[in-house]
Amino acid sequence: MERDISNTIFRLGFFSAIGIVLIQAVLSVAPLMFRLTEGRPGCDTPIHWRLGDVDSRFPVDRKTFLLTAIEAGNVWEKRIGKKMFIYDPQTSFAVTTVFDDRQKMLYDSQGLEKTVAQYQKDAAVLKNTYDTLQAGFKRDQTVLNDRIASYQKALAVYNDDVSQANAAGGATPDKYASLEKRRKELEKEQSVIKKETDRISMEVDQVNAAAGKINTKTTSVKNDIQTYRQKYGEPQPFIEGLYESPLRSITIYEFKGVDDLRLVIAHEFGHALGIAQHAPDDQSAIMYAMMGGQDLLHPGLTEADIKAYEAVCPASAVSPRDAFVSYLVDTPYPEMKLGTIFTLFSTLVTSAILVR
Ligand SMILES: [Zn+2]
User: Fold this and answer.
1) Among 44, 60, 197, 237, which residue has the least CB neighbours within 10 Å?
2) Sheet strand arrangement including 47-51
3) C-alpha of residue 210 to centroid of ligand 1, in Å
4) From ligand 1's centre to the CA of 244, what distance in Å?
C-alpha cells in the first residue's frame, strides 16, 4: 500500500498558508479594533469637556459655574441612562463665557425692574396718602360750606332785624343789647370760618403736594424706561449660548443665575451630542430654540429631545466588537461554532474598516 505523501504535504502547506493569512489579517485589523472602542463621542463614548474662562462680571463664580455645567450634563444622562459628559481639564472642548452687551443689557434691565418695582411701592404709598388727604379735604369742605351757609343765613336775618329796628326809629335798650350780642356771635363765627378756610386751603396744598410727588416719580421712571429703550431698542431675541462644531467650544453670553445657566448649557450640550436642529413644536423641550417654556428648577428631557438624540445616536443593539467579545467570553467552549466566530469576526473587520 502506498500513501500519497505529496498530497498530505500539499494540504499541510495549504492550511499553513491560510493560517499565515489569518494571522496577518488579525494583526492588521487589531489597531482598527482598538480604534473602534473610541466610538462616536456622545453616542458610544462620553464627551470630554473642560471649563474655559468664566468672566468675573457674570453673576456666579467659577466653582458654581462648573457645578452647574455638570448638572446640565446630568439632565441628559439621567434620562438617557448612561455617562455622556466627562469633566476633563486636559481636553480641548471648552465651556466658556464672553461678557458683552447681552449681559450688560440683562443687568440694566434688572436695575430697571428694581426701579419700577420701587416706584410701584412708593406710588402706592403716595396714592394712599393722596386719597386720605383728599377725603379729609372733601369732608372738611362740606362741613365748612354748611357752616358758611348757616352763617350767611343768620347774617341775613340779623341785617333784616337791624333794618326793621332802624325803620321803627331805633331799638329799645333790650333789643339793642340782643342785636349787639348777635353781631358779636356773627363776628366770632366769621373769624372761625376764616380760620377754617385757611386750614382747608393748607389741606389743598398737601393734596397737591402729594399729587406732585407722584408725578415727579412717574416722570423719573418713565425717563429711565426711555433711556433703556434708547440704549437697547425694543426687546428682541438674542443668542445666550453658542456651540461651535465639532466639539470646539460652548460660549455662554447671558444668564441670570444658576437655573437659566443650567438650561442654556444643557441646550448647548445637546448640540454637542450632534443634535443640529431645534425641536420646533415643543416649547418645553431642552432643544427648543427659545428659553421660557422649560422647567427652570427641574429641567428634564421631553420626548422631542429623546427623539432628537436617538435620531443622531441610533440605539444600535450591540457593537460588533461587543458581540464578538461576548460570544467568546459567554459561550461555553463545546458550544462554540467556528462559522459563528468567523461571521462575527468578519462583521467586526467590516465595521472596523468602515469607521476608518
Ligand atoms: Zn440651539
Assistant:
1) 237
2) 85-87, 47-51, 94-97, 249-252, 241-244
3) 51
4) 11
